[in-house]
Amino acid sequence: THPAETAAALNGLVRRGLIRAVGVSNYFPEQIRALQRYLDVPIRSNQIEISLARLDPIYEGLSGGDGTLDQCMSLGMTPIAWSPLGGGALFGSRPHPAGNERIAAIRAELARQAERYNATPVQLALAWLLAHPAGIIPLVGSTNPAHIQEAVGAAGLTLKREDWYAVWT
Question: pTM to 2 decimals?
Answer without folding.
Answer: 0.89
